[in-house]
Specification:
By secondary structure, the protein is α/β, with parallel strands linked by helices. The protein is built from 17 helices and 8 strands. Helix 4 links the parallel strand 4 and strand 5. The radius of gyration is 23 Å and the shape is globular.
């Protein structure tokens, strides 16, 4: 069956899970969130394992056949998550059709791919999924749809925006929902539960037009010590909110920790990374290699300490923000270290 992405929530609530879901489109945030909703529903129904398979030009499609018949070590239901980065081709079409002809009862197949053109939508393998599963095409939003989406997202994030603020942010993100999501998260950290107008949106966007917390994350991934120190100096001079910087560092450290843990358990690095923008993949993989043998208990403990200090926790009172900024610099350099991070002697005060 064919569904619009906005119908997926109702489908998951009212109907049983289908054996196969095909999601096609060029809007990554909507695909990511649609897949997340399917995964959540699957988890509620006992699908506790997840195999991620990435297929490109030189794909080995026998992996799909193997995933279909492979038994879990713990006899658990499994999600087979396929990332199709190229056209399926004859081999891919045959493999998917064979899978559809012998659907395993303990697995759900999710296929994520870029927007399929009209000829691809008429292909045999897509028709097979349409007949026995769910096909969701995700289209770019029109200007009014984007405006409505931004308004709903801002309010859901605890913001109280004026219509002018909503319109300004919508114009600034130019249809990029990933960028909109990042800006709304930032605004939520700065102005949660507050009424925000054009001035607050301009303030947040102006900060990011020079250096942003995302620039800081990029410098950490590439282990550019001089750039890290320069960005933090500028962010401090411009009065960037500490919770915003801490959120960025915590998110990055958690992503790296999760990826390194998955690799240590035998998962290929490209799968351990999960979905990521193309230009972020190489530096993230380099950071994973650098941190693979790190003492993550030291890293995460320092992250926790800085968070408590910034919130004025009784056991770690600081007289001013200078100590917190010093700890942020040290933590950023710790994540960017070329050495075996955490193995060296570092005092956590």
């Amino acid at each position: 069956m064919k569904l619009r992405v906005e119908q997926l929530g109702q489908h998951l609530q009212q109907q049983s899970l289908q054996p196969v879901y095909l999601l096609s489109g060029d809007e990554p945030l909507q695909i990511m969130e649609a897949v997340d909703s399917i995964l959540l529903k699957a988890k509620e129904n006992g699908y506790l394992e997840r195999d991620i398979l990435t297929f490109d030009t030189h794909a080995n499609w026998s992996l799909l056949s193997s995933a279909a018949v492979e038994q879990s070590l713990f006899a658990q239901k499994t999600i087979v998550d396929v990332r199709l980065n190229t056209k399926a081709g004859n081999k891919g079409s045959l493999a998917i059709r064979e899978y559809m002809a012998h659907l395993p009862s303990d697995k759900i197949l999710i296929i994520q791919t870029k927007r399929l053109d009209k000829s691809a939508m008429k292909s045999v393998w897509v028709k097979a999924i349409d007949k026995q599963g769910v096909v969701i095409q995700i289209w770019d939003m029109s200007a009014p749809q984007t405006l409505a989406w931004v308004a709903k997202r801002m309010r859901h994030s605890g913001l109280q925006p004026t219509q002018e603020a909503i319109r300004l942010l919508t114009e600034r993100i130019e249809g990029n929902l990933l960028a909109a999501d990042q800006e709304i998260r930032k605004l939520s950290l700065l102005f949660n539960q507050q009424r925000i107008d054009v001035e607050e949106v301009l303030q947040a966007v102006a900060d990011s037009s020079r250096f942003s917390v995302f620039d800081l994350s990029g410098a950490i991934l590439t282990s550019d010590v001089r750039r890290i120190q320069h960005i933090l100096m500028i962010l401090r001079e411009e009065g960037t909110a500490l919770p915003l910087i801490l959120w960025s560092l915590s998110t990055l450290s958690r992503q790296l920790y999760d990826a390194c843990f998955k690799v240590s358990m035998g998962q290929p690095p490209i799968q351990a990374m999960g979905y990521m923008a193309y230009d972020k993949k190489a530096p993230f993989q380099a950071a994973m290699r650098r941190l693979q043998n790190a003492d993550w208990s030291v890293i995460l403990a320092k992250n926790f300490l800085i968070d408590r200090m910034s919130k004025g926790h009784e056991s770690v009172q600081v007289k001013d923000e200078s100590r917190v900024w010093d700890e942020i610099v040290d933590f950023s350099l710790l994540l960017a270290s070329e050495e075996s991070v955490g193995k060296q002697s570092r005092e956590i005060k």
